[in-house]
Amino acid sequence: MSDVTAITASPSAKKASRRSRRAQSERREETSNLILDAAEHLFAHHGRDGVTLRAIAAAAGFDTALVHYYFTDKEGVFRAVWNRRASVLNAIRNATMDSYEAEAGEALTIEGVLDVFLRPIFETMVNLGDGWIDFAAIAGATNASRYGGAQIMDEYFDPIVERFVGLLRRLSPDTPDRELYWYMHLLSGALTQSLAQTGRIDTLSGGLCRSSDLMTILDRMIATFSAGFSAVRSPI
Fold it and tell me: Interhelix angle for 177-196 vs 130-143, to 10°?
């Protein structure tokens, strides 16, 4: 065996190669996250259509060509923002629902079902920082958009929504599905408005209520929609 072959095949050389690949992977992930952080903030404040790839690159501190290399185009960046956050949020919500169903058994309550559906969203926003608050605003705007919003929400959140509706069916098996989906529709609208944090309630209430008071909003939503579920069971 030649000296060159021996050196190439040595354990120390293999370890160095692995460290190099790991370092490259870590740098790539860091760069990707910096780009997505910048894009997320811009999308939250200006909407998808109000942001350009050039603006994302400038906000992240990189050349536009690098952003293009990583994500192809603006739609690629937008989808990557969704992929990064939605997968984490869905995992948390599914785990929370799993725990609740295991503990409650057949003793489900509307308060408990609403809590496990909504609380992970609000606690994630409060506990994990500004990026999640920006993503929540993006999700709220997307959910209310007629232009591709339904497709994105269907893709990322339909399984969670259907699981929630399934819990409602268990609570009220005699209620027609039509009423359960209307209930979900109205709940989704309240959630969308709350996630957007527009500040409108601040103005309307003269400062008595704040759209940034997320945990209070959660408590009010659970109370309001728990009481409203009796109307679903006795539809108009």
Answer: 130
Express each pLDDT in 83-123 by its tens digit.
Answer: 999 999 999 999 999 999 999 999 999 999 999 999 999 99
**DSSP string for 215-231:** HHHHHHHHHHHHHHHHH
For residue 163, give the nearest of 144, 149, 184 by alpha carbon.
184
Neighbours of 38 (CB within 10 A): 21
Closest Cα to residue 44, out of 157, 142, 152, 158? 142
Tell me which of 1.10.10.10, 3.40.50.1820, 1.10.357.10, 3.40.50.1980 is the CATH number of domain 74-236: 1.10.357.10
The pLDDT of residue 28: 87
The predicted model scores a pTM of: 0.84
